[in-house]
Design a protein that fits this description.
The complex is a heterodimer. Chain A has a domain at about 60-165: Alpha-Beta Plaits (2-Layer Sandwich), CATH 3.30.70. Chain A contains seven helices and seven strands. Chain A has helices at about 10, 15-20, 20-35, 75-80, 115-120, 145, 155-165, and strands at about 60-65, 65, 85-90, 95-105, 125, 140, 150. In chain A, the strands form two sheets. In chain A, strands 1, 2, 5 and 7 form a four-stranded mixed β-sheet that branches. In chain A, a hairpin with a 2-residue loop joins strand 1 and strand 2. By secondary structure, chain B is α+β, with helices and mostly antiparallel strands. Chain B folds into three domains: about 5-95, Ubiquitin-like (UB roll) (Roll), CATH 3.10.20; about 130-225, Alpha-Beta Plaits (2-Layer Sandwich); about 290-570, Rossmann fold, CATH 3.40.50.740. Helix content of chain B is about 20%, strand content about 15%. Chain B has helices spanning about 20-25, 100-115, 130-135, 175-180, 215, 280-285, 290, 310-320, 340-355, 385-390, 405-410, 445-450, 495-500, 520-530, 540-550, 560-565, and strands spanning about 5, 10, 50-55, 75, 80, 90-95, 155, 160-165, 185-190, 195-200, 225, 240-245, 250-260, 260-265, 300, 305-310, 330-335, 360, 415, 435-440, 455, 465-470, 475-480, 565-570. Chain B is elongated and about 95 Å long. The relative contact order of chain B is 0.10. Classes of the chains: A alpha+beta, B alpha+beta.
Chain lengths: ~160, ~600
């Protein structure tokens, strides 16, 4: 290679060294975007509704018969971040076991969805909920009261999951 | 000893052994459900089918050899069950050949036809033999499309055991246990084919003193414990080796712990003490006093109340109070519930700091507790050990027999006690109020601690390392299973996943740590107050000194005690031979 001019400045011609045409071109590009359709939105006033495939905050499914979870502890075992703690107890129902305590530490959760994948009862699924704001570490540990969601609200996700069963 | 060839490897076993016994004694596993080394052979699960053959004999009796000089083997046309076939010289056994594997898969498929597969609910999951074999010896697919046979779940079999007939794979281990070990013949098979069920005879209960052992030997989760049902997953628990403190038998146990709380006790195999069993009493009672009603920090009496204080304050107060008395006015009481190390240091404390012979301990005999199997009448785990390491009254010393009298006549004005059960103190109970000073090392809040002037919070058997001497003079090692403020960093403690990876802000780590100390440590630190310095940093140091000072313990060490599962007193040089301990099914990795 025959390089005679060594610096950037030496390789540029006069107009290029002036920068003015480049500035004009840049302004033109920006001006062009003003008239194109927008992709941003005014969050949080305008809320985005994700697809069924979205992995948001894990929740417990509550159907007509009540909670589905039998407290088998597989989600807790598979959780790579140790976010889930389950304590079981006995009920009179057919499925003899239920969780007396089911806690997900949202500071530990990494939204991998393993808990949902391993669940034998389809009791824990990833919801569309992504607004997670906490004011203390204690508040970020969600108990059963905050985790249980009626099945009607989770139809999208359950349908998405069934495609891959 | 006949030599046999198992999967191409030559092994030896005593004559008369069955193939499955010979295999496990040499470290091989043959798949099985119904066989158990302590029970009779029933041969009904068919899981141990193996190919067995003998060398071909020539008409003159010699063995026929092939071109390469190996014996020609003629195999039985059908597979044989390893649990009921006795070994013979030259026998060849194949457990990994295609036909054997196919048979195992077929048996597994049959067993799983009517098994409900409710592992998510079942307590056995994680340590289930059927689950384990389901992974190892099954195709993982079922061809059965029809309705499974349903059977009653949650049948109560007595005070401690719940039976789930659906999960049962009809191995009959529990029936044979009830007949042969528990000697309460109340269980039997009823019906035939896929409707076969295990039932209690009408009007009977399985309420034997050893009934809960069927929960351990049940290869599936058909038998569960009423006490433990659904409390925790096995993989959330840690299991540390210990010794049952329920009586002087010293059954080897494992303590199942989650979140620093003992949830269950299960037997640990020791062929020389308890084999595979333990009694229900030990299993159900010996963890509650560790979990509940604990003295969690040292306390000093101030006016009529016991006030929690720091260890330094308690030691200073104890020194000040003890110095008010002449040495012969103080009585030291050891404990059969404390370890050899604790009692040794107490006797050392009495002798070296106070030059006192006023040292003794109460024996607790309950003849009604005794039976002809494991339970013995001595209800303290270490009475003999305490006596062996020096809890013996001196020549002119006060003993427990003349203690009430001496207390009445004010010859004894102060008591130093390292146990807490008021029942131990029945002979002197009336006299206690007249004493000027009572110092107690306590586990729990009891009527005795409420009378005490200084209470040192002591660590229970589940929180310390130490040794017990059982009724057969066997020294056995116990290791800590729980953490306290003091043993947080005990190396070698088995920990669960939650213990290992929990952070300080996880809820399961936020239980309050008990500020307790082992008895020997309390005494060592108290001796320092009296300007007597002993160089004991761990229980191991104390035990080392015991082995040096007390001839019957000579040659022992914690490593050796663990390796040989206990050593007989005075016979440290000739330990019982080590044997391979059979384990039916345990959580893996353990």
């Amino acid at each position: 290679m025959n390089i005679t001019k060594n610096t950037e400045a030496e390789r540029m011609n006069f107009w290029e060294r002036m920068y003015i045409p480049e500035i004009a071109r840049g302004l033109g590009l920006t001006l062009n975007q003003v008239f194109k359709p927008k992709f941003t939105r005014q969050y949080p006033e305008e809320v985005w509704e994700p697809e069924g495939s979205y992995r948001g905050r894990p929740v417990l499914v509550k159907d007509e018969t009540g909670e589905r979870c039998v407290a088998c502890g597989l989600c807790s075992r598979v959780c790579p971040a140790l976010a889930i703690e389950v304590h079981a107890s006995e009920t009179e129902k057919d499925k003899e076991r239920y969780p007396v305590k089911f806690e997900i530490n949202m500071l530990r959760c990494i939204f991998c969805g393993f808990c949902e994948e391993v669940c034998p009862e389809e009791a824990i699924v990833m919801s569309k909920d992504y607004h997670l704001v906490f004011q203390s570490q204690e508040e970020a540990i969600l108990g059963k009261d905050k985790l249980e969601v009626p099945i009607a609200k989770l139809q999208d996700r359950l349908e998405f999951l069934r495609q891959y069963r | 000893m006949p030599g046999i060839v198992l999967d191409g490897q030559k092994i030896e076993a005593a004559a008369g052994k069955t193939v499955i016994e010979a295999a496990y004694q040499n470290g091989f596993q043959i798949t099985h459900f119904c066989w158990h080394p302590e029970l009779s052979v029933s041969g009904n699960c068919r899981m141990c089918l193996v190919e067995i053959g003998m060398p071909k004999r020539m008409p003159d009796g010699s063995i026929q050899m092939d071109n390469e000089g190996n014996p020609v083997i003629s195999y039985f046309p059908k597979l044989q069950i390893a649990c009921a076939t006795t070994i013979a010289e030259g026998m060849h056994i194949n457990t990994k050949k295609d036909n054997v594997v196919k048979a195992q898969e077929a048996v597994m498929e049959f067993l799983l036809i009517n098994h409900p597969l409710d592992c998510p609910i079942c307590d056995e999951a994680g340590q289930c033999k059927l689950q384990e074999y389901g992974y190892k010896h099954s195709t993982g697919e079922s061809r059965f499309e029809e309705e499974k046979v349903h059977a009653p779940k949650r049948q109560s079999w007595g005070p401690s055991v719940v039976f789930d007939a659906e999960r049962c794979i009809k191995c009959s281990r529990c029936i044979r246990f009830a007949q042969e070990v528990a000697k309460q013949d109340v269980l039997t098979f009823v019906n035939r084919g896929d409707h076969v069920k295990i039932e209690l005879f009408e009007g009977t209960q399985f309420d034997n003193q050893y009934s809960m052992n069927v929960i351990d030997i049940c290869p599936v989760g058909a038998l569960t414990s009423k006490d433990f049902r659904f409390k925790a997953r096995v993989w959330d628990m840690s299991f540390n080796d210990s010794i049952c403190p329920g009586c002087a038998r010293g059954c080897n146990i494992k303590l199942g712990v989650r979140n620093n709380e003992i949830l269950r006790i299960e037997p640990r195999t020791n062929p020389y003490v308890n084999k595979y069993w333990m009694c229900d009493y030990g299993r159900l009672t010996q963890y509650k006093f560790v979990n509940e009603n604990r003295v969690t920090e040292p306390m000093i009496r101030w006016k009529d109340e016991l006030i929690p204080c720091s260890w330094d304050e308690a030691f200073a107060k104890a020194e000040e109070s003890l110095k008010k008395f002449k040495p012969e006015e103080i009585m030291f009481i050891g404990s059969g519930r404390a370890t050899n190390e604790d009692n040794y240091v107490l006797s050392k404390f009495a002798k070296e700091v106070f030059n006192s012979g006023n040292i003794d301990l109460f024996r607790d005999i309950d003849e009604s507790f005794k039976d002809d199997f494991l339970k013995v009448s001595d209800s303290k785990p270490n009475h003999f050990g305490a006596v062996e390491v020096g809890i013996v009254p001196g020549k002119d010393g006060v003993n427990v027999q003349n203690l009430p009298e001496k207390m009445r006549y004010k010859n004894i004005k102060a008591l130093y006690i390292i146990t807490d059960r008021i029942v131990d103190f029945r002979p002197i109970l009336d006299e206690l109020d007249d004493l000027e000073l009572i110092i107690v090392h306590a586990y729990n809040h009891t009527p005795l601690t409420s009378k005490a002037d200084i209470v040192f919070a002591a660590s229970t058997y589940a929180e310390i390392e130490g040794t017990y001497l059982n009724i057969d003079k066997r020294v056995q090692h116990l290791s800590p299973a729980l953490v306290t403020a003091e043993n947080m960093r005990f190396m070698g403690m088995k920990m669960s996943r939650l213990d290992k990876f929990g952070a300080s802000n996880d809820r399961w780590t936020q239980h309050k740590l008990r500020n307790t100390l082992p008895h020997w440590k309390i005494l060592t630190k108290l001796a320092e107050q009296f300007a007597v310095k002993w160089n004991f940093k761990s229980a191991k140091d104390v035990f080392k000194e015991i082995t040096e000072k007390i001839p019957s313990f000579a040659g022992m060490s914690y490593e050796k005690l663990i390796e040989y599962q206990g050593l007989t007193l005075g016979k440290a040089v000739q330990p019982d031979p080590k044997v391979v301990n059979y384990e039916s099914h345990v959580m893996k990795p353990n």
